[in-house]
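From: lab user (bench 3)
To: helpdesk
Subject: output format question, protein + 4'-deoxy-4'-aminopyridoxal-5'-phosphate

Hello, I'm new to running complex predictions and I'm not sure whether the block I got back is the full result or only part of it. Here's what I submitted:
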Amino acid sequence: MPALLPRPSILSIEPYVGGESKIPGVNRIVKLSSNEGAFGVPPAAQAAYATLAAELHRYPDGHATALREAIGARFGLDPARIVCGNGSDEIIQHIILAYGGEGTELVMSAHGFVMYEVSGRYAGCQVIKVPERNLTADVDAMLAAVGPRTRLMFLANPNNPTGSMLPAAEVARLRAGLREDVLLVLDSAYAEYVTRPDYDPGTALVEAGTNTVMTRTFSKVFGLGGIRLGWCYAPPHVIDILNRVRGPFNVNAPAMVAGIGALAEPGWVETSVAHNDAWRARLSDGLRAAGITVHPSEGNFILADFGTAERAKAADAALKARGLIVRMMHSYDLPQALRITIGTAEDCGMVLDALTAFMRG
Ligand code: PMP
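Helpdesk reply: Thanks, we reran it on our side. This is the complete output you should expect:
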Protein backbone atom coordinates (compact mmCIF):
# COMPACT_ATOMS: atom_id res chain seq x y z
CA MET A 1 0.00 0.00 0.00
CA PRO A 2 1.45 3.41 -0.89
CA ALA A 3 1.88 5.71 2.14
CA LEU A 4 -0.17 8.88 2.30
CA LEU A 5 2.26 11.79 2.15
CA PRO A 6 1.99 15.57 1.77
CA ARG A 7 4.08 17.43 -0.79
CA PRO A 8 7.76 16.97 0.20
CA SER A 9 8.42 20.67 0.90
CA ILE A 10 5.82 20.58 3.70
CA LEU A 11 7.83 18.03 5.68
CA SER A 12 10.69 20.54 5.98
CA ILE A 13 8.49 22.93 8.00
CA GLU A 14 9.04 22.97 11.75
CA PRO A 15 5.80 23.42 13.74
CA TYR A 16 5.57 26.98 15.12
CA VAL A 17 6.74 27.30 18.71
CA GLY A 18 5.69 30.28 20.79
CA GLY A 19 2.93 31.87 22.76
CA GLU A 20 3.64 29.89 25.93
CA SER A 21 1.96 31.47 28.92
CA LYS A 22 2.91 29.02 31.67
CA ILE A 23 6.05 28.12 33.58
CA PRO A 24 5.72 24.94 35.62
CA GLY A 25 5.78 25.79 39.33
CA VAL A 26 5.52 29.56 38.81
CA ASN A 27 2.23 31.22 39.70
CA ARG A 28 2.59 34.75 38.43
CA ILE A 29 4.02 35.04 34.96
CA VAL A 30 4.75 38.03 32.77
CA LYS A 31 4.52 37.19 29.08
CA LEU A 32 6.97 39.17 26.98
CA SER A 33 7.43 36.63 24.20
CA SER A 34 4.96 37.56 21.46
CA ASN A 35 5.33 41.33 20.94
CA GLU A 36 1.82 41.96 22.19
CA GLY A 37 0.80 45.51 23.12
CA ALA A 38 1.78 46.55 26.65
CA PHE A 39 -1.61 47.91 27.69
CA GLY A 40 -4.01 45.07 27.08
CA VAL A 41 -7.20 45.45 25.04
CA PRO A 42 -8.52 48.94 24.19
CA PRO A 43 -11.69 49.48 26.29
CA ALA A 44 -13.71 50.47 23.21
CA ALA A 45 -12.75 47.17 21.56
CA GLN A 46 -13.81 45.22 24.63
CA ALA A 47 -17.14 47.01 24.79
CA ALA A 48 -17.84 46.43 21.10
CA TYR A 49 -16.88 42.77 21.39
CA ALA A 50 -19.23 42.27 24.34
CA THR A 51 -22.22 43.58 22.40
CA LEU A 52 -21.92 40.80 19.87
CA ALA A 53 -22.62 37.79 22.07
CA ALA A 54 -26.32 37.65 21.17
CA GLU A 55 -25.59 37.91 17.43
CA LEU A 56 -23.21 35.00 17.08
CA HIS A 57 -25.70 32.82 15.22
CA ARG A 58 -25.29 35.18 12.26
CA TYR A 59 -22.51 34.84 9.71
CA PRO A 60 -20.25 37.87 9.55
CA ASP A 61 -20.24 40.34 6.67
CA GLY A 62 -18.12 38.47 4.13
CA HIS A 63 -16.83 41.76 2.71
CA ALA A 64 -15.86 43.25 6.08
CA THR A 65 -17.28 46.51 4.72
CA ALA A 66 -17.59 48.48 7.96
CA LEU A 67 -14.13 47.41 9.09
CA ARG A 68 -12.50 48.27 5.77
CA GLU A 69 -14.20 51.66 5.85
CA ALA A 70 -12.95 52.28 9.39
CA ILE A 71 -9.41 51.29 8.41
CA GLY A 72 -9.63 53.44 5.29
CA ALA A 73 -10.80 56.44 7.29
CA ARG A 74 -8.11 56.00 9.92
CA PHE A 75 -5.20 55.58 7.51
CA GLY A 76 -6.46 57.70 4.62
CA LEU A 77 -6.79 54.72 2.26
CA ASP A 78 -9.36 53.58 -0.30
CA PRO A 79 -11.38 50.77 1.36
CA ALA A 80 -11.72 49.09 -2.04
CA ARG A 81 -7.99 48.42 -1.95
CA ILE A 82 -8.11 46.73 1.45
CA VAL A 83 -8.57 43.04 2.22
CA CYS A 84 -8.86 41.86 5.83
CA GLY A 85 -7.73 38.51 7.16
CA ASN A 86 -7.56 36.15 10.10
CA GLY A 87 -4.36 37.84 11.24
CA SER A 88 -1.89 39.16 8.70
CA ASP A 89 -0.48 35.62 8.73
CA GLU A 90 -3.50 34.52 6.72
CA ILE A 91 -3.00 37.25 4.16
CA ILE A 92 0.68 36.40 3.84
CA GLN A 93 -0.24 32.77 3.22
CA HIS A 94 -2.82 33.65 0.56
CA ILE A 95 -0.40 35.96 -1.23
CA ILE A 96 2.25 33.24 -1.32
CA LEU A 97 -0.13 30.50 -2.46
CA ALA A 98 -1.61 32.77 -5.12
CA TYR A 99 1.62 34.14 -6.61
CA GLY A 100 4.22 31.55 -5.59
CA GLY A 101 4.23 27.76 -5.67
CA GLU A 102 6.30 24.99 -7.22
CA GLY A 103 8.93 26.27 -9.60
CA THR A 104 9.04 29.78 -8.13
CA GLU A 105 11.37 31.48 -5.69
CA LEU A 106 10.54 33.62 -2.69
CA VAL A 107 13.26 35.99 -1.51
CA MET A 108 13.53 37.20 2.10
CA SER A 109 16.33 38.42 4.36
CA ALA A 110 18.20 35.89 6.48
CA HIS A 111 16.39 36.80 9.71
CA GLY A 112 13.12 37.90 8.17
CA PHE A 113 9.78 37.02 9.79
CA VAL A 114 9.39 33.26 10.08
CA MET A 115 5.97 32.90 8.44
CA TYR A 116 7.34 33.84 5.00
CA GLU A 117 9.45 30.73 5.07
CA VAL A 118 6.69 28.53 6.54
CA SER A 119 4.10 29.62 3.99
CA GLY A 120 6.71 29.61 1.23
CA ARG A 121 7.50 25.97 1.84
CA TYR A 122 3.81 25.17 2.22
CA ALA A 123 3.27 26.60 -1.24
CA GLY A 124 6.28 24.71 -2.62
CA CYS A 125 8.37 27.83 -3.32
CA GLN A 126 12.12 27.75 -3.14
CA VAL A 127 12.82 30.07 -0.20
CA ILE A 128 15.98 32.16 -0.68
CA LYS A 129 17.33 33.71 2.53
CA VAL A 130 19.64 36.62 1.80
CA PRO A 131 22.55 37.55 4.10
CA GLU A 132 22.06 40.78 6.03
CA ARG A 133 24.29 43.61 7.15
CA ASN A 134 24.19 44.20 10.90
CA LEU A 135 21.00 42.15 11.10
CA THR A 136 19.39 44.53 8.60
CA ALA A 137 18.11 43.63 5.12
CA ASP A 138 20.75 44.46 2.51
CA VAL A 139 19.05 45.94 -0.56
CA ASP A 140 21.91 45.17 -2.97
CA ALA A 141 22.12 41.56 -1.78
CA MET A 142 18.30 41.18 -1.95
CA LEU A 143 18.29 42.46 -5.53
CA ALA A 144 21.24 40.25 -6.47
CA ALA A 145 19.34 37.22 -5.16
CA VAL A 146 16.49 37.71 -7.63
CA GLY A 147 16.50 35.13 -10.41
CA PRO A 148 14.21 34.48 -13.38
CA ARG A 149 11.93 32.31 -11.22
CA THR A 150 11.56 34.85 -8.40
CA ARG A 151 7.95 35.93 -7.98
CA LEU A 152 7.83 37.14 -4.38
CA MET A 153 9.98 39.24 -2.11
CA PHE A 154 9.10 39.83 1.56
CA LEU A 155 10.42 42.60 3.74
CA ALA A 156 9.22 43.10 7.31
CA ASN A 157 9.88 46.72 8.12
CA PRO A 158 10.63 47.01 11.00
CA ASN A 159 11.68 43.40 11.03
CA ASN A 160 10.77 40.83 13.66
CA PRO A 161 12.90 39.55 15.43
CA THR A 162 15.82 41.89 14.72
CA GLY A 163 13.96 45.21 15.22
CA SER A 164 15.89 46.66 12.28
CA MET A 165 14.33 49.16 9.88
CA LEU A 166 15.09 50.11 6.29
CA PRO A 167 14.73 53.83 5.53
CA ALA A 168 12.13 54.88 2.94
CA ALA A 169 14.78 55.61 0.32
CA GLU A 170 16.20 52.11 0.62
CA VAL A 171 12.77 50.49 0.32
CA ALA A 172 12.08 52.61 -2.75
CA ARG A 173 15.42 51.53 -4.22
CA LEU A 174 14.48 47.91 -3.57
CA ARG A 175 11.16 48.30 -5.40
CA ALA A 176 12.79 50.19 -8.27
CA GLY A 177 15.33 47.41 -8.74
CA LEU A 178 12.74 44.63 -9.05
CA ARG A 179 11.14 43.38 -12.24
CA GLU A 180 7.44 43.99 -12.83
CA ASP A 181 6.63 40.32 -12.27
CA VAL A 182 8.04 40.26 -8.73
CA LEU A 183 5.52 41.12 -6.02
CA LEU A 184 7.11 43.04 -3.14
CA VAL A 185 5.29 42.50 0.15
CA LEU A 186 6.07 45.16 2.74
CA ASP A 187 5.04 43.80 6.12
CA SER A 188 4.48 46.83 8.33
CA ALA A 189 3.16 44.99 11.40
CA TYR A 190 5.16 47.28 13.68
CA ALA A 191 4.73 50.52 11.69
CA GLU A 192 3.10 52.48 14.50
CA TYR A 193 6.08 52.00 16.80
CA VAL A 194 8.62 53.54 14.43
CA THR A 195 9.92 56.91 15.54
CA ARG A 196 12.59 57.52 12.91
CA PRO A 197 11.43 60.21 10.48
CA ASP A 198 12.87 58.45 7.41
CA TYR A 199 10.27 55.66 7.59
CA ASP A 200 7.55 54.77 5.09
CA PRO A 201 5.17 51.90 5.85
CA GLY A 202 4.70 51.37 2.12
CA THR A 203 1.43 53.16 1.31
CA ALA A 204 2.96 55.37 -1.38
CA LEU A 205 4.75 52.46 -3.04
CA VAL A 206 1.51 50.46 -3.20
CA GLU A 207 -0.16 53.40 -4.92
CA ALA A 208 2.74 54.10 -7.26
CA GLY A 209 2.74 50.74 -9.03
CA THR A 210 1.02 47.45 -9.63
CA ASN A 211 3.25 45.08 -7.73
CA THR A 212 3.64 46.18 -4.12
CA VAL A 213 1.46 45.12 -1.18
CA MET A 214 1.52 46.44 2.39
CA THR A 215 0.34 44.21 5.24
CA ARG A 216 -0.71 45.46 8.68
CA THR A 217 -2.07 43.95 11.88
CA PHE A 218 -4.31 44.61 14.87
CA SER A 219 -2.17 42.25 16.98
CA LYS A 220 0.48 44.72 18.11
CA VAL A 221 -0.25 48.34 18.97
CA PHE A 222 -4.03 47.83 18.73
CA GLY A 223 -3.91 45.14 21.40
CA LEU A 224 -5.96 42.45 19.65
CA GLY A 225 -3.56 39.54 19.10
CA GLY A 226 -6.11 37.07 20.44
CA ILE A 227 -8.79 37.99 17.97
CA ARG A 228 -6.69 37.39 14.84
CA LEU A 229 -7.16 40.40 12.63
CA GLY A 230 -4.89 41.78 9.92
CA TRP A 231 -5.28 43.56 6.61
CA CYS A 232 -3.48 44.51 3.47
CA TYR A 233 -3.46 47.47 1.11
CA ALA A 234 -2.83 46.42 -2.45
CA PRO A 235 -3.36 47.28 -6.13
CA PRO A 236 -6.85 46.41 -7.43
CA HIS A 237 -5.72 43.33 -9.38
CA VAL A 238 -4.12 41.84 -6.24
CA ILE A 239 -7.24 42.66 -4.21
CA ASP A 240 -9.27 40.79 -6.84
CA ILE A 241 -7.06 37.70 -6.50
CA LEU A 242 -7.18 37.74 -2.69
CA ASN A 243 -10.96 38.04 -2.77
CA ARG A 244 -11.10 34.94 -4.96
CA VAL A 245 -8.94 32.75 -2.74
CA ARG A 246 -9.80 33.81 0.80
CA GLY A 247 -12.56 32.07 2.71
CA PRO A 248 -15.87 33.91 2.31
CA PHE A 249 -16.04 34.56 6.08
CA ASN A 250 -12.34 34.65 6.89
CA VAL A 251 -12.76 37.48 9.40
CA ASN A 252 -15.14 36.66 12.23
CA ALA A 253 -17.81 39.02 13.48
CA PRO A 254 -16.29 39.73 16.94
CA ALA A 255 -12.97 40.54 15.27
CA MET A 256 -14.62 43.09 13.00
CA VAL A 257 -16.39 45.00 15.77
CA ALA A 258 -13.39 44.80 18.09
CA GLY A 259 -11.14 46.13 15.33
CA ILE A 260 -13.47 49.05 14.67
CA GLY A 261 -13.58 49.70 18.43
CA ALA A 262 -9.78 49.66 18.72
CA LEU A 263 -9.46 52.20 15.93
CA ALA A 264 -11.93 54.46 17.73
CA GLU A 265 -10.20 54.36 21.12
CA PRO A 266 -9.07 57.93 21.76
CA GLY A 267 -5.33 58.40 22.21
CA TRP A 268 -4.60 54.68 22.30
CA VAL A 269 -1.85 54.58 19.70
CA GLU A 270 -0.24 57.81 20.91
CA THR A 271 -0.08 56.62 24.53
CA SER A 272 1.18 53.18 23.55
CA VAL A 273 3.85 54.55 21.26
CA ALA A 274 5.09 57.14 23.79
CA HIS A 275 5.36 54.39 26.40
CA ASN A 276 7.14 52.08 23.99
CA ASP A 277 9.59 54.78 22.99
CA ALA A 278 10.54 55.61 26.54
CA TRP A 279 10.86 52.03 27.76
CA ARG A 280 12.54 50.65 24.66
CA ALA A 281 15.30 53.22 25.27
CA ARG A 282 15.46 52.63 29.04
CA LEU A 283 15.52 48.86 28.73
CA SER A 284 18.08 48.90 25.91
CA ASP A 285 20.36 51.33 27.76
CA GLY A 286 19.99 49.45 31.03
CA LEU A 287 20.83 46.10 29.46
CA ARG A 288 23.80 47.60 27.63
CA ALA A 289 25.03 49.05 30.92
CA ALA A 290 24.82 45.52 32.33
CA GLY A 291 27.10 44.31 29.52
CA ILE A 292 24.55 42.85 27.09
CA THR A 293 24.59 43.69 23.38
CA VAL A 294 21.22 45.14 22.38
CA HIS A 295 20.43 45.77 18.73
CA PRO A 296 18.76 49.06 17.83
CA SER A 297 15.02 48.44 17.49
CA GLU A 298 12.13 50.31 15.91
CA GLY A 299 9.56 47.78 17.13
CA ASN A 300 7.92 47.01 20.48
CA PHE A 301 10.64 44.52 21.33
CA ILE A 302 14.39 44.33 21.58
CA LEU A 303 16.88 41.65 20.61
CA ALA A 304 19.41 41.02 23.38
CA ASP A 305 22.58 39.17 22.39
CA PHE A 306 24.37 37.15 25.06
CA GLY A 307 27.28 36.07 22.89
CA THR A 308 26.70 32.31 23.06
CA ALA A 309 23.72 29.98 23.01
CA GLU A 310 24.67 28.70 26.48
CA ARG A 311 24.61 32.21 27.97
CA ALA A 312 21.29 32.98 26.29
CA LYS A 313 19.84 29.77 27.67
CA ALA A 314 21.09 30.60 31.15
CA ALA A 315 19.68 34.13 30.88
CA ASP A 316 16.34 32.68 29.79
CA ALA A 317 16.37 30.38 32.82
CA ALA A 318 17.15 33.34 35.12
CA LEU A 319 14.19 35.22 33.66
CA LYS A 320 11.88 32.20 33.92
CA ALA A 321 12.83 31.78 37.58
CA ARG A 322 11.22 35.21 38.12
CA GLY A 323 8.19 34.37 36.01
CA LEU A 324 9.37 36.31 32.96
CA ILE A 325 8.71 34.61 29.61
CA VAL A 326 10.71 35.95 26.66
CA ARG A 327 11.43 34.37 23.28
CA MET A 328 14.43 32.18 22.59
CA MET A 329 15.64 32.58 19.05
CA HIS A 330 16.73 29.10 17.95
CA SER A 331 14.16 28.94 15.21
CA TYR A 332 15.58 32.19 13.81
CA ASP A 333 19.14 30.89 13.80
CA LEU A 334 20.01 33.34 16.58
CA PRO A 335 20.46 30.95 19.54
CA GLN A 336 22.72 33.46 21.31
CA ALA A 337 19.88 35.98 21.54
CA LEU A 338 16.60 36.53 23.37
CA ARG A 339 13.79 38.69 22.05
CA ILE A 340 12.06 40.70 24.76
CA THR A 341 8.76 42.51 24.27
CA ILE A 342 8.44 45.98 25.79
CA GLY A 343 5.80 45.44 28.48
CA THR A 344 4.57 47.77 31.21
CA ALA A 345 7.00 49.86 33.25
CA GLU A 346 6.84 47.22 35.95
CA ASP A 347 7.53 44.40 33.46
CA CYS A 348 10.53 46.24 32.03
CA GLY A 349 11.86 46.93 35.52
CA MET A 350 11.62 43.23 36.35
CA VAL A 351 13.51 42.26 33.20
CA LEU A 352 16.19 44.82 33.92
CA ASP A 353 16.62 43.65 37.52
CA ALA A 354 16.72 39.97 36.54
CA LEU A 355 19.25 40.40 33.74
CA THR A 356 21.44 42.82 35.69
CA ALA A 357 21.61 40.25 38.49
CA PHE A 358 22.29 37.52 35.93
CA MET A 359 25.18 39.44 34.39
CA ARG A 360 26.71 40.11 37.83
CA GLY A 361 26.51 36.35 38.11
N1 PMP B 1 4.44 40.11 10.47
C1 PMP B 1 5.34 40.28 11.43
C2 PMP B 1 6.63 40.94 11.11
C3 PMP B 1 5.07 39.81 12.73
O1 PMP B 1 5.98 39.93 13.69
C4 PMP B 1 3.82 39.19 12.99
C5 PMP B 1 3.44 38.68 14.36
N2 PMP B 1 4.37 37.99 15.05
C6 PMP B 1 2.94 39.02 11.94
C7 PMP B 1 3.26 39.51 10.69
C8 PMP B 1 1.65 38.29 12.08
O2 PMP B 1 0.74 39.02 12.77
P1 PMP B 1 -0.79 38.60 12.88
O3 PMP B 1 -0.99 37.34 12.12
O4 PMP B 1 -1.05 38.46 14.33
O5 PMP B 1 -1.52 39.74 12.24
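A quick orientation on your result: The CA atoms of residues 168 and 200 lie 5 Å apart. Let us know if anything else is unclear.
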